[in-house]
Amino acid sequence: MKPRIFACTWTLQPLMGPVEAARFASTHAFDGLEIQSNVLDFWPGPGSERLLRELCAIGENEGLRYTFYGQAALNPAARAPESRHANAEMIKHAIATAVALSSPLLSVHPGIVSELATLERHGHPYATSRFDRTQLLRDGWQRAVETLAQWAELAADAGLLLTIENEAHVRHTAAPTAASLAAMIDAIGRPNVRVNFDTGHAFIGEGLQEELVVLRPHIGHLHLNDNRGNTSEHLPLGTGAADFPAIAEFLATVDAALVLEIYAPERPVEASLESRAYLTTLFRGIVDS
Question: What average pLDDT does range 65-84 have in this prediction?
Fold first, then answer.
């Protein structure tokens, strides 16, 4: 199976919008393009119909495949009723958009337990005997499981996978470890729920290979980026310290899109092309054999 390497609108956003990004991906023979929702360029729902039609036309006419990442505001761990109501509306628009784009999946975050931020000042937790932070995290994890199970049913009805990203670097995430994310997938208990494995997030979490071992049975989508081991820098591949050769065989043979989610605002085009070239070199002798 030939690896499927996708460009990403988030990477290209400093220079171009989604339509230009789709043309770029097609012109440079990428296998596809991940479209990531944001309020500046593309927000699912009323008002985005014209842009969606343009993207669909490019996909049809030029044979470009898409994957879709939903709104960052989607928070399956939300506690406030107003937030949960807003999530219910946003997920419907996100699913409809993924279907319109012929994306096989919708990617989302595992959620933020925002109550934990309430017990801080300027990012520093303060002492309190009234609240148990560990229990708040457990409750947020359980809310995320229940909400994601509902979203998974909606996604399944639309013929979509629902992929959930590993986010050990995100403060107050509902799934702070690979084990807690794997447990979340198991607890959701839906066959169309998979992991969106971000290599950079794994590297600064428990380690790239270590998180891969835990999450590998669940992986259905990937975000590829590099860093120097401390923060989620989203560097071009091969320019940080992540050991990609150690997981090269997995990357070359996994049945999932490899999305180049790179942060290089001064040279996003070059960074995308160089990262693809890095993978092509890495896969020699694996894909050909």
Answer: 96
Q: What angle do CA 242, 9, 198 make, to 5 degrees?
A: 30
Say whether pTM exceeds 0.85: yes
User: What is the per-residue DSSP string for 123-134?
Assistant: TEE---SS--HH
SS3 assignment, position 166: coil
DSSP, collapsed to helix, strand or coil, labels residue 245 as helix
Contacts of 10 (CB under 8 A, 6+ apart): 34, 36, 38, 261
Residue 37 carries which DSSP code? -
Q: DSSP string spanning 86-155? A: HHHHHHHHHHHHHHHTT-SEEEE---B-THHHHTEETTEE---SS--HHHHHHHHHHHHHHHHHHHHHHH
> Beta-carbon neighbour count of residue 274 at 10 Å?
17
Q: How far apart are CA 157 and CA 221, in angstroms?
A: 20
pLDDT in tens, 9-62: 999 999 999 999 999 999 999 999 999 999 999 999 888 999 999 999 999 999
User: Domain 4-283 is in which class?
Assistant: alpha beta
